Amino acid sequence: MDQLVSNTTVHNDISYHIHSQTNPLLHEQEGPMVVVRGEGAHVYDADGRCYVDAMAGLWCASLGFSNKRLIAAATKQYEKIGFYHTFFHRTSDIVAELAETLVHLSGMESGKAYFATSGSEANETMVKMAWLYHKVKGKPEKRKIIARMRAFHGSTIAAASMCGLPFMHREYGLPLPGFLHTTTPDPYHGPAPGQSEAAFVDSLIADLEAMIEAEGADTIAGFIAEPIMAGGGIIVPPAGYFARVREVLQKHDILLMADEIVCGFHRTGNPFGQDTVGMKPDMMSLAKGLSSSYFPISAVVVHGKVYDALCEFNRAGGVFGHGFTNSGHPVGAAVASEAIKIYEELDMSTHVRAIGGKLKQRLAAMAESSPIIGEVRGAGLMIGVEFVADKANRTRFPEEQKVGGTFDRIAFKNGLIMRCMGDTVALSPPLNIDDAVAEEILEKFESTLHELTMELQ
Ligand SMILES: Cc1ncc(COP(=O)(O)O)c(C=O)c1O
After folding, report:
1. Cα dist from 275 to 55, 224, 236, 260, whole Å
2. How far is the CA of 122 from the centre of ligand 1 (A)?
3. Tens of pLDDT along 185-208?
């Protein structure tokens, strides 16, 4: 890129632009990374430096950064119509087709799909649907939502309230009343010394039951969970966890809402994360991989019983009082439909299991000989590597040492984009990476690990 253009971008960005999840003062000092181009799993900055983006942006660009078919699908649809909406009975052919595809893929009995534009909106929509469901069933006081500590569910007010991360709350006086957080099902740090996996699950279920008991089951509408936590540090729940959670929820007439925003569309080596962890939700939110993030589109797929409640509520002629201008945007629907076709043609879950398995195995081999890797975990192409001060006792490094952040910084210098969540670093690359890209990620990971280990000595 022309140096002058680049300097102008840096100037404008520092002067006029507020960034998400960025320290504003540090940004003023250090300025942005100006991303100018993408090619497969690689991105290029304004100085021509190439990075392998092992996070697919934000767990989202599942088909990389330059997929010609997705670009063509958007272009073709834009040529037909630049925008239309879905209020007042309006639709587009491609929107109706995508709804059918999603309901079919979800396996949700008598399901229906609703469209929005972001993951946060999809999660907010699920909360409203849960409230409406119980209201119709004559229990309007069932409104509280249980999420888990360390969960990430988005940035709008209810979605942020469902997050179990203090940095999402502290500036805003959140969570809102009625948004509760139960124990994280973290098999690495959660169990007491010597506690078996089954006993750990028992303790998680006891915590959930105690919360329901203390709050009153007739005040609780829903329980929201990612099948595998992404932003919380790649937390794969212990075996049997979701089956037991489901039992408890059913007993108390509490709806199970799956946040499939990261896990959905093959990320975990199955079409949906719920298939990987044995979760059977009443509704699910989708975004990111839905369109490989080439267009801001999200969706909620609900069980027929939730849709029936919506109908019942409006039996007298009212309308579903909800909607976003860009819900069911035809271009988003065209991109998402094409992405889903590509996933099917590439037999994406099988590919993800194979290549993710290789990556995990090689990282686990590095962990064996590393004094600081405590655990390599995850499923498919959603892998976390956790650094610890003492492997035998699973003791964390002091927070102020920022070991994960240091890894991130060194990786970036080495042309590898990863993401740290505390001292866990995540790998969530585009799903269609080949062996050569996997090898490049591993090589850069290994040299970064070596440099980090030296820095810590
Ligand atoms: C699990 C999960 N849910 C919800 C969201 C929110 O999605 P959005 O940023 O599109 O609102 C995210 C975003 O990273 C996410 O990881």
Report:
1. 22, 16, 13, 11
2. 9
3. 999 999 999 999 999 999 999 999
Residue nearest atom 3 of ligand 1, based on CA coordinates: 153
> Which residue has the least CA distance to atom 5 on ligand 1?
154
Closest of 178, 171, 175, 94 to residue 142, by C-alpha: 178
Q: Which amino acid is present at 147? A: A
CA angle 445, 421, 432 (to 5 degrees): 50
pLDDT tens, position by position, 199-258: 999 999 999 999 999 999 999 999 999 999 999 999 999 999 999 999 999 999 999 999
The Cα–Cα gap between 303 and 109 comes to: 6
Closest-CA residue, ligand 1 atom 13, reads 154
Is omega for the bond preceding 175 within 30 degrees of 0, making it cis?
yes
Residue 36 has, within 13 A of its CA and on its CB side, a CA count of: 14
CB atoms within 10 A of CB 385: 29
Determine the 3-state secondary structure of 269 from DSSP: coil
Q: What percent of the chain has pLDDT over 90?
A: 98
Q: What gap in Å lies between CA 254 and CA 223, rounded to an integer?
A: 7
Report whether 287 contacts 297 (CB < 8 A).
Answer: yes
Q: Bridge partners of 235?
A: 229
| Ligand 1 site, CB within 6 A | 58, 118-120, 123, 152-154, 226, 230-231, 259, 261-262, 287
Ligand 1 closest atom vs CA 154: 6
Q: Among the atoms of ligand 1, which is closest to the Cα of residue 118?
A: 10
C-alpha 222/C-alpha 214 separation (Å) is: 16
3-state secondary structure of 37: strand
Residue 2's pLDDT band (cuts 50, 70, 90) = low
Using most ligand atoms within 8 A of CB, pick from 62, 126, 127, 152 the residue to mutate for ligand 1.
152
What is residue 390's DSSP assignment? B
pLDDT of 1 above 60:
no
